[in-house]
Amino acid sequence: MTDISLGPRGLTIEQQKEIAIIQSQASNEPYKPKITTQTSLYVGELAPHIDEAMLKEHFGNVKSVQVCRDSVTNQSLGYAHINFYTPQDCSAAFENLNHSKIDGTTYRLMISERETTKRVSGAGNIILKNLHPNVDNKSLYDTFSRWGNVISCRVFNKLTGGSVKGYGFVNYDTYAAAERAISFVNGKMLFGKEVHASHQVLKNEKESLLSHNDQQHCRFTNVYVKNLSSDVTEDDLGELFSTIGPVSSVLVQRDDQHKPKGFGFVNFELPEDAERAVNELHDKDFFAEDVTDEILINNFLPYGTITSAKIMKDESTGAPKGFGFVCFSSSDEANRAVAEMNGRFISSKPIYVALAQLL
Known about the structure:
alpha+beta, Alpha-Beta Plaits, 4-stranded antiparallel sheet, 13 helices
């Protein structure tokens, strides 16, 4: 296999440009870097204390800055919108500052796309699997911007069973750019691991490829999740639903201002896991906000020896996410806990309990 280096770790800017030229010559539709026609950027994954003044100082000469805040508490929701005077300034900020840091926290930029059909069509979306733990958002962007204009990209690293399973998403502005990236990356070695790259096929596109009979026998893998709180992220959904089975992609739907709409989608690798998620999680409540690690241990202790117990919390705010994990010393103890505790009440709320799936 051919080994390709990621971003600044192995290639200079000049070398990356040389590679882009060579690749464009081999492509039927050459890669042509272009300046966006938009003048607004979405800034995500901001630390709670980042305010408008800090953003203005960081981004320089901008027209306006708005940190989105909770209407009741006025606390930052972790994202903002920045308006530039010209598309050139917007494009330059996106290219040069994406995945940089403000006060020690790495943020993520997206071009605010006003064309709804382009934003939600998914034609330029690709999925990457088997990524090395060293691959981060910055190196992913540096690498995949060689083959087209990247609207957004993100890496998800999940620690399970002592190993890290990495996957990611890259959203290009055109299908041709996504096709070009897949042709060069799929099967290649990144940091010693063979990467699998493919198009993210949307549900309606999958159905159009199936005959009527095939559709009747097709089992779904995509699960629709609604009634989500405004602070739920893709990481939260992925972490929760991966207790059912391996998850291939997660999406929290957002509006034109990138505010969560309260629903999302979780795509499983196996249809039986998707069916199980619907059957077992539908209309289920999770832990009340006052449930602590100690309360969790006290409730599950009668069923065996607990090696660890943890209520999952938001890293930036410390707020409980509504679910947690209890590890027993044996599978028999875990099975007994599931049988006895599922549907029981903790702090006035019925809880859902299931065996966690190691990916």
